[in-house]
Design goal:
Elements (H helix, E strand, L loop, with lengths): L1 E10 L2 E7 L3 E6 L6 H13 L19 E9 L2 E9 L6 E4 L2 E2 L12 E4 L4 H5 L2 H15 L3 H26 L4 H5 L2 H48 L5 E6 L4 H8 L6 H22 L10 E6 L2 E2 L6 H23 L4 E5 L7 H11 L4 E6 L12 E6 L2 E4 L3
Parallel strand pairs: 3-13, 3-14, 8-12, 12-13
Antiparallel strand pairs: 1-2, 1-4, 4-5, 5-6, 6-7, 9-10, 10-11, 14-15
The structure holds adenosine-5'-triphosphate and magnesium ion.
Pfam family, one: SMC_N
Function: The RecF protein is involved in DNA metabolism; it is required for DNA replication and normal SOS inducibility. RecF binds preferentially to single-stranded, linear DNA. It also seems to bind ATP.
Keywords: ATP-binding, Cytoplasm, DNA damage, DNA repair, DNA replication, DNA-binding, Nucleotide-binding, SOS response
Length: 395
């Protein structure tokens, strides 16, 4: 698929912008702070309903304005669709598909698919586990948008279970005065409620975990290949899923197995039993996909803490390129590939190889502060971005 048109109103630094796009390669060039990333951030937002730079919507709206609007015309198999998003910080966002308003903005997911690589992705390698969990879940949703609902259900259930753990702490805690006072009925009730939430969390949690594991299994071959290509064979990129479930199942998963969802659900229940004391002590849920991690390895060493800057960058890039390849093979159409500032940090060989790898994608949007950093083979059409003005360089 490709974007044919992008239109912004009060998005970031843009009072308004209209950009005509074409398939193939388009490069946005401009000095620092002129609005290149803002532009591609809007593209990523239309696809995933979140920014790769901020977790809140407020910074996306131009300072002084009340709302931002992104419109994108996307063409897939010759058929054009118009997506419109209204970003209203502090209030509900709104989405339209064609002329029809959607009940929930979430329903727009899947219309535009992108894979976006940006400097922030270095955090995939160097940052907290939450960064890698987000990578997996976002890819899951890009692949099958219905996971957005499950993902949000999981967060809600988790919140409620944590609230219960906190509120029932005095009753559940072993040796606490309340418990030795023994109000058996109260204890019974608390245990029963906990059981109910265990059931909900294990149900949604095991399906999410199962989906992540299958996703990872599908992704890994592409990751190894992408890293190998970018680095010209200097190191094997690997990733292992680190599960918070009890040891036996966690070991199995770390070994690359994908247990059936039923087994995962049972393992979650068993793990709840094991950590009950600690959970009650601390008032937080210690088992579930929200506690998991993806351990990245380069050769025999963990990437985090060992890989060089350029290697970390290449690893993060490898993850995104793998995501691109996976979606391409799944969807039967190419997602729009966005490369924000990717070239400045790569050595000459890696630049050229990357250019060769992405050259056949249906649409690639590239940003660069220095035009010469972009390999000649990948320059394509050029737009100049100056202070929120986007103008096309004559061919
Ligand atoms: N909500 C907002 N309202 C107004 N201006 C904003 C808003 N958010 C960001 N900006 C401005 O947008 C500019 C940053 O734009 P952007 O990140 O797109 O730059 P860039 O061209 O990608 O630069 P670089 O080459 O450094 O990556 C900054 O000057 C910032 O002040
Ligand atoms: Mg930028």
């Amino acid at each position: 698929m490709f974007l044919r048109h992008l239109s912004l109103v009060d998005f970031r630094s843009y009072p308004s912008a209209e950009v005509e796009l074409e398939p193939g390669i388009t490069t946005f060039v401009g000095l620092n702070g002129q609005g290149k990333t803002n532009l591609v951030e809007a593209v990523g937002y239309v696809a995933g309903l979140s920014s790769h730079r901020v977790s809140q919507d407020a910074p996306l709206v131009r300072a002084g304005a009340q709302q931002a609007i992104i419109r994108a015309a996307v063409v897939r198999d010759g058929r054009e669709q118009l997506v419109e998003l209204e970003i209203n910080p502090g209030r509900a966002n709104r989405a339209r598909l064609g002329r029809s308003p959607l009940t929930r903005p979430r329903d727009v997911l899947g219309t535009v698919r992108t894979v976006l690589f940006a400097p922030e992705d270095l955090a995939l390698v160097k940052g907290d586990p939450s960064e890698r969990r987000r990578f997996l879940d976002e890819l899951l949703i890009a692949r099958q948008p219905r996971w957005a609902a499950a993902r949000s259900d999981y967060d809600k259930i988790l919140k409620q279970r944590n609230a219960l753990l906190k509120s029932a702490m005095p009753v559940l805690r072993k040796g606490s005065r309340r418990r030795t006072d023994r109000d058996p009925e109260e204890l019974e009730r608390a245990l029963h409620t906990l059981d109910v939430w265990n059931g909900h969390l294990a149900e949604v949690g095991s399906s999410l975990l199962y989906a992540r594991l299958r996703l990872l299994r599908d992704l890994l071959p592409y990751l190894a290949k992408a890293y190998d290509e970018v680095s010209a064979g200097r190191g094997a990129a690997q990733a292992t899923y680190r599960s918070s479930l009890h040891e036996e199942v966690a070991t199995q998963i770390a070994g690359g197995d994908v247990p059936e969802q039923d087994a995962l659900r049972q393992a979650m229940h068993a793990s709840f039993e094991q950590v009950r004391e600690q959970e009650v002590e601390r008032g937080v849920t210690l088992v579930g996909p929200h506690r998991d991690d993806l351990v990245l390895q380069l050769g025999d060493l963990p990437a985090k803490g060992y890989a060089s800057h350029g290697e970390s960058w290449s690893f993060a890039l490898g993850l995104r390129l793998a995501a691109f390849q996976l979606l391409r093979s799944d969807l039967g159409t190419d997602p729009v590939l966005v490369l924000d500032d990717v070239f400045a940090e790569l050595d000459a060989g890696r630049r050229e190889r990357l250019a060769a790898m992405v050259g056949d994608a249906e649409q690639v949007l590239v940003t660069a502060a220095v035009a010469d950093d972009v390999p000649a083979t990948l320059t394509g059409r050029t737009f100049h971005v100056t202070l929120g003005e986007v103008s096309r360089e004559p061919d």
